[in-house]
Amino acid sequence: MKAFLIDRYAKGGALRFGESPVPELRENDVMVEVHAASVNPLDAKIRDGEFKLILPYRLPLILGNDVAGVVVRVGSSVRGFKPGDEVYARPAQDRIGTFAEFIAMNEADVALKPQNLTMEEAASVPLVALTAWQALVEKAKLRKGQKVLIHAGSGGVGTVAIQLAKYLGAHVATTTSAANVDLVKSLGADVVVDYKKDDFEKVLQGYDVVLSSLGKDTLEKSLRVLKPGGKLISISGPPDAAFARQNGSGWLFQLLMGLLSFGIRRKSKRRGVSYSFLFMAANGVQLGKIASLIEAGAIRVVVDRIFPFQNTNEALAYVETGRAKGKVVIAVK
């Protein structure tokens, strides 16, 4: 099959377009013919080698963390899917590889595609929607009437997180540039801070939750927005010991992750708030719930651009500019 791979970790390196074996089908797997995949900043970080300690992949590696397509074969123990089913998924972190013509995934990580979405639209959803769900529903336990700040509201995670937070009944603030104010307001943001003009930490106060996908400076400033007992959740790091335990890592790696996050955890504790790092996990059940929200109109997808499969490198470069509104998608078939 045709695929886009990396042979070695290299910052800013191009993916190699070439032939790769069709993946092995295990007894609990579904084999999916890929119709569309979306591009995430995570793909660039993996290519650059930023996660090689956390995720020790064997090279060469097919990149890609989101997929929509059609089931073509199922393993002997699969009961939830059959050939012909239209599905979408975020593969498990150790089985990524959606920039290809086929991918095999455990059926537990897969869900039926929302019926009202095209393949390209569906492929834009899994990673960012699962991130928003696991941050706001699972970690934050966001409730009606609470206040949440979602950074980078016009990005892939932000566009879904704003809508999910509004569905949960929260008051939502977000940061973005002036060019994207109308977009984030249309998604339900109650307060919009132009990060180029205003200091969000001076404008906002008394928040219950902050979801950050940005760097260290923004993370530390976010502490000033939270009220005592509030929760600071980061999807960009630094990782913490809890993440290392969740990842099945040994005590030494847990200690290292604890050291990496020591500074922000100490500052959080001083302000009476909690800090946690989220590296989202594949979850077909949650994707099923998200599909229901999409079909009900509670969440709409935001797709910036669709690239043909042969232009996967250009799609990745576009995502790296940081200017995409919503998601960037690759049409594979």
From TrEMBL:
Does the UniProt entry include the keyword Oxidoreductase? yes
InterPro entries per record: ADH-like_N (IPR013154), ER (IPR020843), GroES-like_sf (IPR011032), NAD(P)-bd_dom_sf (IPR036291), Quin_OxRdtase/zeta-crystal_CS (IPR002364), YIM1/Zinc_Alcohol_DH_Fams (IPR050700)
Molecular function GO labels: oxidoreductase activity; zinc ion binding
Enoyl reductase (ER) domain mapped to chain residues: 12-330
Record's Pfam families?
A: ADH_N, ADH_zinc_N_2
Q: Which UniProt keywords apply?
A: Oxidoreductase
What name does the UniProt record give this protein? NADP-dependent oxidoreductase
Native source organism of the sequence: Rhizobium tropici
